[in-house]
Structures are given as structure tokens and as C-alpha cells.
Known about the structure:
Layout: E1 3-4, H1 15-28, E2 33-38, H2 42-55, E3 59-61, H3 84-91, H4 105-122, E4 127-131, H5 134-144, E5 145-147, E6 161-167, E7 170-177
Parallel strand pairs: 1-3, 2-3, 2-4, 5-7
Antiparallel strand pairs: 6-7
Helix pairs in contact: 1-2, 4-5
Amino acid sequence: MRSKNLVRRGGSLTRDGRSQAAALADRLHGRRVAHIYTSTMARAVQTAEIAAAKLDVSVTTRRGLQEFGVGSHVDVGRDTDPFAETFAQWLDGDLTARVAGGESGDEIVARANAVLQDIADAHPGETVLVVSHGGILTLAIQNLLTFEPGVKPKQFANCAFAETELRGDGWRLTGWSDPT
């Protein structure tokens, strides 16, 4: 396993996080994962590297998979969630809303779409694992995917995964796997 374009920021996995990453790899073992792409944030990279070691595949980091930026909240205390109102607007369909000093929902969805399309183009017909963050993945799933009948997205838990396919008519959510 080797990592390309590695940039580390954003903390370190806990013992539980490392166990969750190993369990993710165990759940994916029979799926013939060809490659892993990950956000450049440290916990995502660590998750990807643990899974890659067990799956015997390589890891590539992509800045486009990073969580939405904190904008002007970078040095603000976190007694309350400074993004809750904006994130709620995005979930209600107002992608023009923006984190103060940061990205709009439209910009986040466009960024996610571009990197996911690049990954799909690089691996036609293959299974890949994308390790990212709850906010960007929630917006991507809600705004880029059509849901197969009976498949509904849930809130992302650590090491949960959405199963998707790129078809002629676009991205489709075909399954959901919780870590438990």
C-alpha cells in the first residue's frame, strides 16, 4: 500500500476510530476494491490507510474530498455549532446559502461531483472506496444521486458507506451499510 499526494491536518484517529477503520475493511473484503481515494484530512487518511493495508490496495488523497471549509469560524469557540443553520438551509434545498467566509452548498456539491466523476472515469466498472466526511457526503448524496427503490440515505456514522453506481442516467444510490 502507498499513499500519493499526502497532506495531513485535522487530528488523529482514536483507538475506536482505528478499530472502526479495520472493521470497514473487513466488511469490504469480498468486494474486490481496486483503489481507495480519501480526503487530505488526517483522520480520513488514517482510515483509508488502515483499510488499504487490509485490502492490499493503494490510497490517493484528493483535496476535493475535504469537508466544507469553516470560513470565518476558523478561530471561533465551538460552544454551539456555527454551521447548523447553513447546513439546515442546504438540506432544505437552498444551496446558495454559504458558511460565512466559506463555500456555498452549490460550490460544495460541484466540488464533490468533479472529484467523484474523475474517480469514476479512472476506474470504469471497478469498485473503489472513497473516504471523506459527513457534510460533503450528505450533500453529494442528496444532490447528485437518484435513489434505487427501497434505498434511503441515512445519517453518516463513522465508517458507514453508501453504495453507488454511475450509470448512463447518472449516479444512483444502490445500498447503505452501517458500521454495526
